[in-house]
Amino acid sequence: MSEKLYPVSVEVNGTLREALVTARLTLVDFLRDALRLTGTHAGCEHGICGACSVLLDGEPVRSCLMYAVQADGCSLTTIEGLARSDGTPGALQDAFCETHATQCGYCTPGMIIAAHALLQANPEPSEEEIREAIGGNLCRCTGYQQIVDAIKLAAETGKGKA
Amino acid sequence: MKAAPFEYTRPAKLAEACSLLAFHGPDAKLIAGGQSLVPMMAMRLARPAWLIDISRLAELQRIAAPAEQDADQDGVFAVGAGVRQCVMERDPRAHASLPLLAQALRWVGHAQTRNRGTIGGSIVHGDVSAEIALVACVLDATLELCDTSGVTEIPAREFFLAPMITAIAPEQCLTEIRIPVWRKPGGNTAHGCAFDEVSVRHGDFALVSACAQLAVDADGHCVRAALGIGGAAPVPLALPEIGWQLAGTRLDEQAISAAADAAVGLTDPEGDLHASADYRRHLARVLVLRVLRAAKQDAMNNLNGKRAG
What is the DSSP letter of B269? Predict the structure, then answer.
């Protein structure tokens, strides 16, 4: 017996996307497999690592901790939505490059989503506030310092607003 | 790490959600923020055949602070079970009337999980180290449960039975949490509170947590005290008897130390791969000392602020 399908309608990076999904399809799998937006990474798939973070109605959430059906009618921003309109990296992404905040790159989209949400709410965060904002995101390469530096750089140059 | 198949429904009314729960029985689970349930389903520790999504029910989103803090009797702060943790974290009424809950919320998970996780969801999940559950027990909150036959109430202190096991029946929905707000302190009295915990990484499950709320007069005498410990027994521990013991003392190091010793005597921690039972007892003592000192300091600061104001 095939699984029942449910209609989902979400706005992703400004574009309305509609699909039929199984109830158990997580939002991260929906983004990656159905919409082919593979910038959002699936890490632990049980809410520990933060690699799958996306903005749901403007707030950072873990896309592995909700089902796509639950996002019906919502607005999503993924890492692809933070790029410039010509597809080149956005300002916060540039800051991550400048400070070598990316090594293997697996945590990077989640880190940038968390950092973006922080700078939207608080354009001049303290180091403690930066560390708190990325506290739910694991990085196994950088030791975090370059990531904190990148977010500081983006804040200092006002690039976080872009 | 994928959930087993299930069917999904998002009723528009609480009554409809209760009917569906009654109809499907233990095969159905309610989902609100899903920050505990979705990982359990991913690990197949939970395999409901039906998920009933209550996250958008307006009936569960009510926040009602007491109109004015009464000087003669305690007030009640009512929080709908579906209110997201991030909403309470930012609510100025919560900071004014329930500073202990406001402090505790900063320790709940991470910003990303607090944006989805709800106050009620954390309580019904029944994790022994959950911060919101501990505050509900320490402040002697009342929980409102609803099913097709109507509404019942249960004290938070009787709700938790064992790790992940609560008194809620499969057909019931937690609808509201009613938390007492201490009566307004008199002229020379002030309230203070503190929450602290030890975890491997900030935002992870606490190994042990503790919190305290005190009313202190101008001479430094404790007028009223509530405290408790999480993660050191099969349920969140409220310790009213130790609160009574502290009342009337000057909250000096001797009184605080005696309270911490007595508190540890009431714990019953389990050892696991994260921490031994002995280490958890050690943490319980250290954390009770810390929160009592910090809550006293907070009260003294509030008292000085009152005088200056």
Answer: P
Distance CA B81, CA B61 (A): 7
β-pairing, A5-12 vs A15-22, is antiparallel
Judged by DSSP in three states, A159 sits in helix
Contacts of B34 in chain A (CB under 8 A): 65-67, 70
Q: What is the pLDDT of residues A43-76, one digit of tens each?
A: 999 999 999 999 999 999 999 999 999 999 999 9
Domains in chain A: boundaries? 5-82, 91-161
pTM as predicted? 0.95
> A91-161, which class in CATH?
mainly alpha
CA atoms within 13 A on the CB side of B159: 31
Interface mutation target, options B2, B87, B112, chain A, most CBs of A under 10 Å? B112
Fold classified for A5-82: Ubiquitin-like (UB roll) (3.10.20)
What ipTM was predicted for this assembly?
Answer: 0.93
Residue A86 C-alpha, separation from nearest chain B C-alpha, in angstroms: 29
3-state secondary structure A41-90: CCCCCCCCCCCCEEEECCEEEEHHHCEHHHHCCCEEECHHHHCCCCCCCC
Q: Do A65 and B38 touch (CB under 8 A)?
A: yes
